[in-house]
Amino acid sequence: MNEEANADLFRRCYDKFGQGDISGLLEHLSENIDFTVPEVENAPYGGLWHGRAEVERFFELLEGAEHLTDFEAREFISQGDRIVVLGRSTSTVRSTGRHYSTEWVHVLTVKDDKITSFVEFFDTAAALRAFQKVTTALS
């Protein structure tokens, strides 16, 4: 698959995510995908997810934890079988009602027309503040 075809594949995946078509997105993933998301305290979805079934579980946990109010993939940078996607998003954490916005970077790899690797980087400090449980001292 050439770089332009890879970029088109990734754009379709981001469109499916934006439309809430997770099952359509999952069709583009390798059965053995490695899907890595930073861990954030109190967020249930961080870590390494291996295989399509685990990634499906990731999306279920993400949906249960956050209401995504804005998601934009802004730039696709392709080289060979790898693409870097730059974007931004805003979410409301369901358990706290707090919002956070972040710029993010996704690094994806494709082989045989399927995404084999996904690594995400984002502002974990902003997410932590939004997920943080408020505690008060008793007087």
Largest sheet: 6 strands, mixed
Mean pLDDT: 92
Strand order of the largest sheet: 2-1-6-5-4-3
Class of secondary structure makeup: alpha+beta
Output the CATH topology: Nuclear Transport Factor 2, Chain: A
- The rounded Rg comes to 16 Å
How many beta-strand elements?
Answer: 6
As an assembly, this protein is single chain
- Ranges with pLDDT <50 over ≥5 residues? none
CATH class: Alpha Beta
CATH architecture: Roll
- What letter string, H or E per element, gives the SSE order? HHEEHEEEEH
Set down the secondary structure blueprint.
Blueprint: H1 3-18, H2 22-26, E1 29-37, E2 47-50, H3 52-65, E3 66-79, E4 82-93, E5 99-111, E6 114-122, H4 124-131
Task: Provide an overview of this structure.
With 139 residues, this protein is an alpha+beta fold. It has helices at 3-18, 22-26, 52-65, 124-131, and strands at residues 29-37, 47-50, 66-79, 82-93, 99-111, 114-122. The chain has a 6-stranded mixed beta sheet with strand order 2-1-6-5-4-3. Strand 5 (99-111) and strand 6 form a beta hairpin. The longest helix has 16 residues, at 3-18. The mean pLDDT is 92.
